[in-house]
Amino acid sequence: MTAKYLVRYGSLGYLALILVAPVGLIFWRAFEHGLQPFWAAISNPIAVDALKLTVEVAAIAVPLNTVFGILCALVIVRHRVRGMGLVNAIVDLPLALSPVVAGVALYLLYARDGWFGPWLSGHGIQVLFALPAMVMATTFVTLPFVVREVVPVLREIGTEQEEAAATLGSSALSTFRRVTFPAIRWAVAYGVVLTTARALGEFGAVSIVGGGIAGRTQTLTVYVQASYENLDQTGAYAGAVLLAALAIATLLAMTMLRPREEANGDRGA
Amino acid sequence: MAIEARNVTKRFGEFTALDGVSVDVASGSLTALLGPSGSGKSTLLRVIAGLERPDAGDVFISGKEATALTPQKRGVGFVFQHYAPFTHMTVWENVAFGLKVRRRPKPEISERVDRLLELVQLAGLGRRYPAQLSGGQRQRMALARALAPQPEVLLLDEPFGALDARVRKELREWLLRLHDEMHVTTIFVTHDQEEALELADSIVVMNKGKVEQTAPPRQLYDEPSNAFVMSFVGPVNRLGDAWVRPHDVELSYEPDGSDHEAQVERIVRLGFETRVDLVRDDGERLHAQMTGDDVDGLELEPGDIVYVRTRRERVFD
Asked: Could you report the per-residue pLDDT of B21-71, keeping only the tens digit for each?
């Protein structure tokens, strides 16, 4: 009995200490003096720009990684070619690699003396310290999520349903739309939620390639860090709360998706 | 001929699944591809359906060259061993699929699907999902789905393999009736010789990627063209160089010119039929199949020494 309680309260205490206390404190500090300072902080134009930019970057990176994530998963699972194991491993690279490294790598590619830099600036295309680089950085770090969610489901459903559809006269595109996609849709949805959460919270790579120019290349995370460094505590907390609220919305979406995903899995058995 | 395969060869890496296979399937027939696992029978079925592309050889469907055609264009219905139901669609939607992708008018789809569900005895279950059906029901749904676009040819891959014995027997009889009604040329793959003998009007026996013999069931059983067919289709004994069916084995206490002596090991009574297990002095075992009355008449007992003669035996090169 004592062991049981020890395990229960031990793990709950751990969660409280590591997760609940810091996040709760953020909320408390942000609303400490009522709604007014919080509202003032997040309606300040620089904060609004940061929020807009964050959403903008995610709105490009997430659909990109959804479409290409599904395509990559299809290629990894369905195309039995040598070297596919390597591709499969490379997809996981962003999970293992620190985003800072990704940021530096992009910087080296697109800087004025980088590989692509001279050609691009010659044609008047600004990549670094602008939206394109920030989208690329975010896309890089969020690449694995859709692929990782979809690959095991594709493996499990196998190819028989697709072959059956083909013998029934369905074209490849129609088979994907009517058979393959419905079978993987909850995995895709879950992958999209994870990708979104990660895209909104990305800091390291984006802060390097974006340069953190207030009002121009500051995403919410970079804004929080800048406010913190400028000793603008309310601003930092307000930005942090906004990020936390986005994260909680994502979590809710995940919990809503999870039981459906499992029910669907049961049905597919 | 509804289907012709000519010199079809298919390799998977080092493994040769089909080695120059030629098969003719008559229009309206019910043909079995019979063989042990790895004999290439399923691969041949998939080549006919267009799900595998042969490395060499040609396939003709209804007289037309079909080797390069995609599965979509072959007019072939395929039933998979594990049915491959569309798990996220209802039974009704599963059956309607082939008609929907062909953009048939809605009233036609609705009428045909209802009629097919009735034919496969699933009329009340159209709104269920495949997971809510039993194995036999799922199998019938897969059949209705394959028949919906009115294929010229119906291909069944181990159609009863995953079902228990009772359901299997029911479905066999039902498939026979269905084939009599629909007259669609049907090929099914099986490793069960009894199933092939019971259902098919023509059997193609395959082994190691080659066709051993193609014949009607009776001829296959009575006039096997080689030792493999003899031993794969029906029970068999070795007696020196000869192959003998257990029901062609005669036992007696008198030599009567027989030079095969054996000891009765066990007498197994299986209702009308009785099996006598024998051991010869060189250690070879054989079985005699006789009626209980014959055994009683001879007063056979385990341990007795008897002489073996054969009514009919075969010797292959």
From this structure: 999 999 999 999 999 999 999 999 999 999 999 999 999 999 899 999 999
A168 and B148 in contact by Cβ < 8 A?
Answer: yes
Reported as a single tens digit per residue, the pLDDT across A177-227 is 999 999 999 999 999 999 999 999 999 999 999 988 888 899 999 999 999
Would an 8 Å CB–CB cutoff place B92 in contact with chain A? Answer: no
Q: Which residues pair with B10 in a beta bridge?
A: B18
User: Does the CB of B87 have a partner CB in chain A at under 8 Å?
Assistant: yes
In chain B, pLDDT over 90 holds for what percent of residues? Answer: 72
Q: Which of A81, A157, A168, A188 to mutate to test the interface with B (most CBs of B within 10 A)?
A: A168
Are residues B72 and A169, on separate chains, in Cβ contact within 8 Å?
A: yes
Q: Kindly write down the DSSP assignment for every residue of chain A, as one continuous string.
A: -HHHHHHHHHHHHHHIIIIIHHHHHHHHHHHTT-HHHHHHHHTSHHHHHHHHHHHHHHHHHHHHHHHHHHHHHHHHHH---TTHHHHHHHHTHHHHS-HHHHHHHHHHHHSTTSSSHHHHHHTT---TTSHHHHHHHHHHHHTHHHHHHHHHHHHHH-SHHHHHHHHTT--HHHHIIIIIHHHHHHHHHHHHHHHHHHHHH--HHHHHHHTT-TTTT--HHHHHHHHHHTT-HHHHHHHHHHHHHHHHHHHHHHHHHHHHHHHHHHHH-
- Read off the pLDDT band of B167 (50, 70, 90): confident
Q: Which residues of A touch B129 (CB under 8 A)?
A: 267
Q: Which of A242, A256, A229, A254 is nearest to A55 (CA)?
A: A242
pLDDT per residue over A33-54, tens digit each?
Answer: 888 877 887 888 888 999 999 9
Q: What's the sign of the alpha-carbon dihedral B78, B82, B87, B89? A: positive
Closest partner residue to B71 among A161, A167, A267, by Cβ? A167
Asked if A265 has any chain B CB less than 8 Å from its own CB, the reply is: no
Residue A259, pLDDT above cutoff 70: no
Reported as a single tens digit per residue, the pLDDT across A143-182 is: 999 999 999 999 999 999 999 999 999 999 999 999 999 9
pTM of the full structure: 0.83
Residue among A157, A168, A183 whose CB faces B98 most closely: A168
